[in-house]
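Reviewers of the previous submission asked for a worked example of the structure-prediction workflow described in the proposal, so we include one complete record here. The input consisted solely of the amino acid sequence. No template or homolog information was supplied to the procedure at any stage.
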Amino acid sequence: MPNDQHQYDVLVIGSGASGLSLALQIAEYADVAVLSKAALSEGATLYAQGGISAVLDVYDTIDSHVEDTLKAGAGLCNQEIVRFVVEQGRESIQWLIDIGVNFTKNPIPNGHEYHLHQEGGHSHRRIIHAADSTGKEIENTLEGLVRVHPRISLFDHHTAVDLITAAKLGLTDNRCLGAYVYDQKHDKVKVFRARFTVLATGGAGKVYLYTSNPDICTGDGIAIACRAGCRVANMEFIQFHPTCLYHPEAKSFLLSEALRGEGAKLRLPDGQSFLDKYDSREELAPRDIVARAIDQEMKRLGTDCIFLDISHRPKDFIIDHFPTIYARCLQYGFDLTAGPVPVVPAAHYTCGGVLIDRNGLTDISGLYAIGEVSCSGLHGANRMASNSLLECVVFAHSAFLHIRDQLSEVPPPPPLPDWDESQVTDSDEEVVVSHNWDEIRRFMWDYVSIVRTTKRLERAKHRIRLLQAEITDYYRNFRITNNLIELRNIALVSALIIESALLRKESRGLHFNTEYPMTSDPATAKDTILNWSVQSKQNY
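From that input alone, the workflow returned the following structure tokens.
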């Protein structure tokens, strides 16, 4: 076997909640490789503050959680999937507790054992959390377990370049056989062969200039699955978190929706509240409504931000419930307990993604996608707060079961071709990569963000066509770098978002086009599904 070829039963690309949950479960039956583009714990899970939604309270019901999710999803949720995920809530939470996740206990006697928040779109308190850093608690717990597991091999600073499929090699019976992977530390491309490959790479927030996502969220899994021939769905539905801290040095720091669930108010610079003009639920309205309201008020007033105020709550309550947010705000000179803090909307969650079934299986045999990289049908046109971590755990378990049951039937893949760099040279124009990266993120923010028009979308489509041609030429002639891999991916994901937005001739959920302000009849609602191998030949 060549030195740069690695063989595993299961290859997991991504190291957030979904990827590590699956790795931990399947490692009882198989040898697993986990790839992380940065340090193992640098994924979006680490930044998830609010919690996980599940029906845990005696006054809550499965039907209520399902109804809330369907309402938020604006007619595009898969009802069967929604019920499937919601019904797995209690079991998923118990699994996390069993592996050592320390959720916040309920200080009230005779109440539920764990404290439950209420967030936008939810009709009950059903958000179990670990103070205000739930994602960090889950990620740290999972990381500690996978690091010591004898059948899990961890590869940090490894970036997937492309999937290797039987179809690409001219073989019959198309199946995913592994991936080409760039080792950042040693500046070389390796071959990872696997009987099963799982994409758990998260979303694509870095497509936009302003985002709550960490730097690694460049839509890699969506892009490589798309290039391999998988269908993607509903890419026009990008969720913008209403309240990211507005400060030049506060990169990607959001102020959890749980703050509004505990009484925080959004205010204009003059101190006036305004959400009652947009929705009767005010601060507890779904994120798309709140984000659009903020965007409209900022444009109306010509201001760079609005303000979030929870200072009317007792100081001890704020510090006890939101210690991380309180401490982080203090670092930037803002005291949550003393007055309002400046906030702006930012790209937060990719509701669309690689189309999967209830097992996490994509269009290609042996290839799975779980978590934010996927489009499972749970979120529809708008994700409800704190449903995403639940989706990660539920689909990790579903994919685990599906893979486990096939382990004895699927043989290891044959030896695969090494990465070929014989026709490329070192680049002396790295500035081109950084310039194109910045250009994409800026025009996506200006033309394809919270409020859209067809003219802006067409302008963005023209720009991305030109840039994709330039990036493709660059990719074919120069050795790859991590920046080039990410640029190639955000360009493709941007094109998918733009094309999907142009195809939807209505406003629904997170997609709002001023030229099509109405939502069509729910009976005619349909997903936007792209097969890029066909779509790109027609339009790009």
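Residues 452 and 513 are 5 Å apart (CA to CA). We consider this example representative of the routine output the project will generate in years two and three.
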